[in-house]
Amino acid sequence: MFTVVFDLDGTLADTSADLIAAANACFRGLGHGDLLDPGQDALTAFHGGRAMLRLGFSRLGIEDDALVGSQYAPLLAAYAEGIDTHTRLYPGAVEAVLALREGGYRTAICTNKPEGLAELLLTRLGVRGLFDSLIGADTLPTRKPDVAPYVASVLRAGGDPRRSLLVGDTETDRRTAEAAGVPCILVSFGPEGAGIARLAPTAMLDDYADLPGLVERLRG
């Protein structure tokens, strides 16, 4: 059984606006107003909560890791509350995953989003049942690009890591696939756009409609 493993943020769904909103809620709570812009700062959103907090505080001339740390839990709470306000799955993603599953593939999620939040988001979006396993940033002691979460996502889906590939959108995903010794497909519609081709993945994906055929070619 061949397994297709997906990253979540920036690969299956554009979560940036809700992430930015959560960070801005923290800044407003401290009396600073909105320090991040959903459009301009979308790429930073995909680097995680602490990256967003650091960027916002840097615009006030503040470099304080303790302050960033103190706002991380409030950011997660704010994000959980509005996790699906603006987030949308990329066009064709559901249809592509369904086609893979109907074709006999197993499907899994390996994300650096905390597991509980990933479970919540996929459930709210109505697609949790499309994936045989989900490994988040805190499921194991390590996260991507360490290979352990990737391997666990495949094994928990009932697959063999040697018969799998990763669909992602960042250098972290590229490095994870390299560590696992598996093909890597990077999407051109993620936060970096077509420029992500600079990482020389096994293949690029411009449209989810092409994914089933691309997977079929790569598995051979």
Strand-helix topology:
Elements: E1 3-6, E2 13-14, H1 16-29, H2 42-45, H3 49-58, H4 65-81, E3 88-89, H5 93-102, E4 106-110, H6 115-124, E5 133-135, H7 147-156, E6 164-168, H8 171-180, E7 184-187, E8 203-205, H9 211-219
Parallel strand pairs: 1-4, 1-6, 4-5, 6-7, 7-8
Antiparallel strand pairs: 2-3
Helix pairs in contact: 1-3, 1-4, 3-4
Describe it for me?
It catalyses: 2-phosphoglycolate + H2O = glycolate + phosphate. Pathway: Organic acid metabolism; glycolate biosynthesis; glycolate from 2-phosphoglycolate: step 1/1. Belongs to the HAD-like hydrolase superfamily. CbbY/CbbZ/Gph/YieH family. The chain folds into 2 domains: 3-14 and 88-219, HAD superfamily/HAD-like (Rossmann fold), CATH 3.40.50; 16-81. Helices cover 43% and strands 13% of the residues. The chain has helices spanning 16-29, 42-45, 49-58, 65-81, 93-102, 115-124, 147-156, 171-180, 211-219, and strands at residues 3-6, 13-14, 88-89, 106-110, 133-135, 164-168, 184-187, 203-205. The chain has a 6-stranded parallel sheet with strand order 5-4-1-6-7-8, sandwiched between helices. The chain has a two-stranded antiparallel sheet with strand order 2-3. Helix 1 packs across helix 3. The protein starts with a strand and ends with a helix.
Brief sketch in words of this structure:
This protein is of the alpha/beta class. It has helices spanning 16-29, 42-45, 49-58, 65-81, 93-102, 115-124, 147-156, 171-180, 211-219, and strands at residues 3-6, 13-14, 88-89, 106-110, 133-135, 164-168, 184-187, 203-205. The strands form two sheets. Strands 5-4-1-6-7-8 form a six-stranded parallel β-sheet, with helices on both faces. It has a two-stranded antiparallel sheet with strand order 2-3.
